[in-house]
Amino acid sequence: MAYPTPNSCISGAIDRWEGLWQDLSSDSGNYAHCQDGSTKLIGTMRGVTPDVYARYKGIDPCSLTPQTMQADITLSVAADIGVTQFYVQPGFSRLTWSPLVEIALDIGWGSGPARGVKMLQQLVGAVVDGGIGPQTAAALDGYLDSHDIGEACEALTDMRVQFYMDISQPGTPNAKFRAEWLKRANWYRTTNAAW
User: Fold this and answer.
1) Cα–Cα–Cα angle for 29, 117, 135, nearest 5°?
2) What's phi and psi for 102, nearest 5 deg?
3) Distance (Å, rounded) from C-alpha 11 to C-alpha 78?
4) What is the DSSP letter of 37?
5) For residue 95, what are the contacts with CB-CB under 8 A and spacing of at least 6?
6) What are residue 22's phi and psi, to 5 degrees?
7) Under a CB-based contact definition with an 8 Å cutoff, are residues 104 and 120 in contact?
8) Could you list the pLDDT tens digit for every one of the 195 residues in the chain?
9) CB–CB of 117/22 below 8 Å?
10) For the chain, which domains are there?
11) Fewest CB atoms within 10 Å of the CB: 72, 152, 164, 170?
């Protein structure tokens, strides 16, 4: 049986974890960073922020409205954004697709592509520079030649969990997100038959 495609994995993760609309003023991702240097609270649809959607459309983020984003960002559009901006542009598409790359891609969806790349590079012993090129691809292939894929997925998930724990200490602004972040990270454990 073939492993699911990047598009189907991204679509599934968005559908499973992102919900629909949210516009909490305490969530920095809900703000558009306008071309004139100002910011504007708009909101996020299916996990797609105003800045990400504006980049996808090639427009000023501040030209967006909540109504436009809610109407335009279907699951299919959100998945296409995931493929173009979070899989292809950061270079994950240069790597052999596997459950390990899926986890790194999902880290990138929530924490920025560079974070997912750097965690994967750290795990496989590549230079941790946030860019994917031939050296990272070779390091990943070499790592998977000498490590069980399940153990590799657990190790990357452990790194992800620790990152979330570190940035969501009690009393910090991110503390309110900790439970959901950990739930999402641990969903990628090898013990989860649904994955």
Assistant:
1) 155
2) -60, -45
3) 7
4) S
5) 101, 132, 136, 137, 140
6) -150, 140
7) yes
8) 677 999 999 999 999 999 999 999 988 999 999 999 999 999 999 999 999 999 999 999 999 999 999 999 999 999 999 999 999 999 999 999 999 999 999 999 999 999 999 999 999 999 999 999 999 999 999 999 999 999 999 999 999 999 999 999 999 989 999 999 999 999 999 999 988
9) no
10) 13-79 (no CATH), 96-187 (1.20.141.10)
11) 170
Residues 14 and 33: their CA atoms lie apart, in Å, by 23
Burial of 14 (0-12, 13-18, 19+ CB in 10 A): buried
List Cβ neighbours of 38 (8 Å cut-off, separation of 6 or more): 62
Query: Among 118, 92, 112, 133, which residue's Cα sits nearest to residue 47?
Result: 112
d(CA 53, CA 32): 10
Render 126-144 in DSSP notation, one character per residue: ---SS--SHHHHHHHHHHH
Sequence letter at residue 119: M
Residues 6+ apart with CB under 8 A from 132: 90, 91, 92, 94, 95, 117
